[in-house]
Fold each of these.
Amino acid sequence: MAYRASADLPAAVVTDLGTETDRQYLLTDPASAIIPEGAPPRYGAVRQVQFSSYPDWAAVSRTFDPLFVRAAALSPSSPVKAEASRIAKETPDAARRAEAALRVVEDRIRYVYVGLDGGNYRPANADDTWRRRFGDCKAKTVLLVALLRELGIAAEPVLVGAQGGDGIDRRLPTPAVFDHVVVRATIDGAAYWLDATRSGDRHLADLDAPRSRFVLPLRSAGASLEPVAVLPPKYPQMVQVVEIDASAGFANPGKYKIQQTMRGDEILGIRAQLAGLAPADADRMQAAYWRQQMPNVEPSRTTWRFDEDKRLLVLTMEGEGKVDWEGDDKTGHTHYLLGAGFPPPAEMKHPKDQAQDAAWATDYPAFTCYATTVKVPPAGKGLHWSYSSNPVDRMLGGIAYWRISSFENGVARMAKSRRVMVPEVSAAEAATVNSAIAGFDNNKAYVSEVSGRGSGLPKLTGLADTLRNHFGTFDEFAGATPPCQGHAADRDASSTPAKDKTPS
């Protein structure tokens, strides 16, 4: 039996009792344990004693592998074999076969947790799961592995930590740190992560690696703990596009067209709720949502659609409402474009009684994108339009900030995104962020009437082509590759391989 105590505990007092060993960690009137604020979860492992009878992680892997091997064995007349044969006849392409197998298990086998009779560790047999049409993560993983292997695709179950797995590498070997299992399939030398408990996955290229920082493959020879490469988020979880026609004048309501494109598991619940309503009730539900989002706009038309191929939900609204103008006819009017500014990063400083070298957790993998277009009315007498919006394309504290803008023919445009690239930053990186806060551009983009000579418009040298190539339309922002990131994010993403290679 191996023991490991955290560094904040005293040395153990060990007493041999013959058939037992007594280990005591004596704390007399201890002060409160101090965990660094804002630090990743591993910093919370304080006053902790671990024990394990596993000599290494390979032993854990070897112990659980036979359970999954037996469960994945199919009977000679298994209907799972017939299903694999059906898929094989549809396409010779291994990637398309894997996508079809994943779709079968996701769509046709309901998730139901099974924890009785050792079921919290022992998976149900693949044939039984197919017959029952339900299973938990272990059962669905075993079924998917069986299907993939019947299709000639290398696949193995891999234990993961669904809550992020931060600090698993600091633990003694134990299965208790894992609470989920997924499939790693290898096609043409590239590894793909398939989670059969999800819904709506259609393309291997869109699948993300597990959020678990460390994983453990199950193999007969045993496997070591593996780190998972941290990749920037591929797509924004939310893209909001707003088009305001304020050309009717400052005192008149503007015409609004708004579109929100959402990604993530949450959209499946929204889709189910909307699809279960009568059209009139769905319209009322959407109108109530938009009134909450945009209190100054009264919806006149709402729509929604779910793109199954791209796994995204698109909500749209058209209506009329007040346009927020500051100023008056004499001094000129100013309008701040919706969503066009960046809040500055929060200062990251640990109190003196906390570890100063502790890292800081980010809100990875947050990725949001906003695009706003405003058609302004004619400028007042003696005034002309000015537009203020500096382009932004920078990395700071593991976050990519990007903004482009233009003003042409009475139309102001802005697109911006905030993309969190990494789950944490070091204390040194945090110090760099703190020193940059004072100079951080948190100004909102705005159009304003001004007097004086000249157009009052910003110089767009070199920016016009960028806007032409990247600003995007409503359809593009709701498409497979929304134009929502700049060169700083591209450079960071290109420095990390898009696919994990199967370890040798």
Amino acid sequence: MDTFHALDAFAALGQQTRLQVFRLLIQAGKTGMSAGEISAALEVRQNTMSANLSVLARSGLIRSTREGRSIRYFSDMDGLRSLLAFLMEDCCGGCPETCQPVIDEIACGDRATPQATAMPAAKSSELKTSERPT
């Protein structure tokens, strides 16, 4: 991944709803979710969700497949892997033991803490007006 694509991915994740969508799709795994299911889960209007899904898809962080009249969305693990590889590309200065704690923290399985993997409790509709991004 080059700097331009990394910036695009970070910009996509720099908005609360899109970050929540991406985390939700990671949790959904291989089954993915329809746009309507995502909208309902996050209590976001479908037209707003459609715009957010488009931004995430253009950034390479999610992918979609058409199922009849519906579209199913999935996290794009290759896109996530590329973004993480970009971040870690020059890590540790040749000392792998420096990077290992970071790798252990983001790895799936028993090492991942519930706090790190849980969806945030607050939905965007529950935020105070002063907390909403402009």
